[in-house]
Amino acid sequence: MIARAIARTAATAAFGLTMTSWPGTTPAQAGVMPAPVLPAHVSGHEARTLSVSDSPRVTSFSLKALNTGETLTVHMLGDRPTDESARAVAHLLRCTRTQKEHEIDPRLIAVLSHLAEATGSDLELVSGYRAPKNAHDKNFHTRGMAADVRVPGVRTWDLRKLAQDQKVPGLGYYPTSKMIHVDVRDVPYKWTDWSGPSR
Ligand SMILES: [Zn+2]
Questions:
Q1: pLDDT under 70 in the chain at which residues?
Q2: 183 pairs with which residues across the strands?
Q3: Is 198 part of a structural domain of the chain?
Q4: Tag placement on the chain: N or C end, fewer CB within 10 Å?
Q5: What's the 60 CA to ligand 1 centre distance in angstroms?
């Protein structure tokens, strides 16, 4: 009896020893917990990424206004247009009814830039800034915060999906008009409009 108890204790001790002294691995490392220290080459990569991101990434994309046929190459520094491009975008997106120009929200220009990058194509602008028709007109187009766009060769549904993946806050899907509406409102809202072109 005593001998068996001693034998069991010895076996338990040996088993415990095996578990805790497994070569180079603690139970936490063997399980789902991440290793607390990154390998040196990963740390080095992180450091390089940080140093590159100190200066904004320079990109550009093309925008064509369907109403006028005008095209524009927009230059971006990170998520902001250059000052010159910001002015040129305001001109390209001007109200087609009144010819008035309005500053275009840089966040909207960043949305357009990301869509162009995701599709690898130029964007076609259906509608940009629209001068308000009355004091109650609070449409995001009247604030330089919205644009209706399409990309030749890209299905409207797929373009909508790309915008959704990028968490564009205001997103309208216009399957009949073959375009999406994007805007940079504060409270996210999505909708589908089956009506055809009204302008
Ligand atoms: Zn719109």
A1: 1-53, 198-199
A2: 146, 170
A3: no
A4: N
A5: 23
